[in-house]
Amino acid sequence: MTQWHPVDPGAGDWGSEDPTIRDQVNHEAVTLAASAMAPIWPHASENLLHFLGNSGTDKTMDLDTYPEDETAIRSQIEDRERLLGESALTRAQESGATG
Fold first, then answer.
1. Interatomic CA distance for residues 17 and 13, integer angstroms
2. Which residue from 56, 22, 57, 52 is spatially nearest to 34, judged by alpha carbons?
3. Virtual CA dihedral for 75, 76, 80, 82, nearest 10 degrees?
4. CB under 8 Å to 44, separation ≥6 — which residues?
């Protein structure tokens, strides 16, 4: 576990500084980009937009949908399940199980 370091002395409380014009432009650009990418990366877009909203509220995430939505993850899970099943079958056969 990494060692905890106190907050930087230059950091202030949340909302203690007004955003600069540059901050506002960057915020708008990233918000537009996150919105534009929503059809391609819906979860990433939703999470980034929640972060940019700066509400301070918790973000509930349904992790059960990720394997359904993300084909690479689903493929890895299916491969792992197949290997576990094959391993269990081999071990059962080697132990003399017949049923």
1. 8
2. 52
3. 10
4. 34, 37
pLDDT tens by residue, 29-86: 999 999 999 999 888 899 999 999 988 888 988 877 776 767 777 788 889 999 999 9
Q: Give the rounded distance of the alpha carbon of 44 from its chain centre.
A: 7
Residue with tokens 């301070």, as numbered in its chain: 56
Residues 6+ apart with CB under 8 A from 73: 66, 67
CA dist., res. 56 & res. 28, Å (int): 19
φ/ψ of 80, rounded to 5, equals -65, -40
Rounded (5°) CA angle 16-32-34: 90
**Cβ–Cβ < 8 Å for 46, 38:** yes
